[in-house]
Amino acid sequence: MEEIVFKTLANKKKYTSIDHFIAEVMRDKEKEEYIYDGIKDAVFKLIIYGFITVDTSSVKNCIKKEDNFYKAKKLGGVGEWLKHRQLHSNAA
């Protein structure tokens, strides 16, 4: 689910609220397995990974992409970023 949320965020569109973003993910995928809570959990994971921050006071763009987001995009996604991170933590 994190990959789906990540790929949706990778487009250049801005979102005025988390609910609008989640609704877009659900609409684009049109499958029952993409339920609201699962998408919301994936958003929280991306926050924990440091990929995004959420500014609920922003009226134009509530989701801000952070440096880790762009690193993951360069590596090919969330899974590749996690592997890369694990390799570097094991080497240390």
Describe this protein with a few key phrases:
globular, 7% strand, mainly alpha, 92 residues, 62% helix, single chain, two-stranded antiparallel ribbon, 5 helices, 2 strands
Description:
By secondary structure, the protein is mainly alpha-helical. The chain contains five helices and two strands. Helix 4 packs across helix 5. The protein starts with a helix and ends with a helix.
SSE layout:
Elements: H1 2-10, H2 18-29, H3 36-48, E1 52-54, E2 63-65, H4 67-75, H5 78-91
Helix pairs in contact: 4-5
In short:
This protein is mainly α and 92 residues long. Helices cover 62% and strands 7% of the residues. The longest helix is centred in the C-terminal third of the chain and has 14 residues.
What about the largest sheet? 2 strands, antiparallel
Ranges where pLDDT stays below 50 over 5 or more residues in a row are none
Helix content: 55-70%
Ends distance: 29 Å
Q: Taking strands numbered 1, 2, ... along the chain, how are they ordered across the largest sheet?
A: 1-2
Number of beta strands: 2
SSE string, helices as H and strands as E: HHHEEHH
Number of helices: 5
Quickly give the structural class. Answer: mainly alpha
